[in-house]
User: Which sequence fits this backbone?
């Protein structure tokens, strides 16, 4: 295949968005994510991940696979 870029674009399943600014909060990210079938959100700390998890559960969202970003932490979040 000489130029795979068209195939790569056609098969793209994931997009990345970096959010910054004072108006960007864990809650605003959670609220926006509720409008999608699937999302992956990386939180910077276990405390942030727990807050995000509680907010999403409070909205009735199905939350799976939330764990500490620190591999030495070893704690899974509820």
Assistant:
């Amino acid at each position: 295949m000489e130029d795979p870029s068209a195939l790569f674009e056609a098969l793209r399943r994931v997009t990345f968005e970096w959010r910054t600014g004072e108006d960007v909060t864990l809650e605003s990210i959670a609220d926006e994510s509720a409008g999608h079938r699937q999302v992956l959100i990386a939180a910077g700390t276990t405390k942030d991940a727990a807050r995000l998890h509680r907010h999403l559960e409070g909205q009735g969202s199905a939350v799976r696979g939330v764990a500490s970003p620190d591999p030495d932490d070893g704690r899974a979040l509820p």
Remarks:
- Residues 46-58 form the longest helix (13 residues).
- Residues 15-78 form one domain.
- The chain is about 35% helix and 0% strand.
